[in-house]
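Quick log. Single chain, no ligands specified.
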Amino acid sequence: DNSRPTILIVDDDNVSLSLLSKLVEKLQYNVVQAADGQQALGILHSEPIDLIVADYDMPHVDGLTLLKKVKDEFPRLPFILVTAYS
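-> predicted structure:
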């Protein structure tokens, strides 16, 4: 549905990715998933995204590095960084 905002969820943990995706879909948003920051950057360059929700702790490109890259290229794109650690 093109009228609904699209949220990109980025998490290397499949269970977290699946749970968060289901929750967001129930809230009537479109969901796009990425398993890591590198994949997320590829998606950002290929389709319109309205919000990113990314895990902090990921291999290769972690959430903080992804946030910096997104802010450099897409400064107005809202970004939520989440973590399971205290």
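The helical segments are 14-26, 37-46, 63-73.
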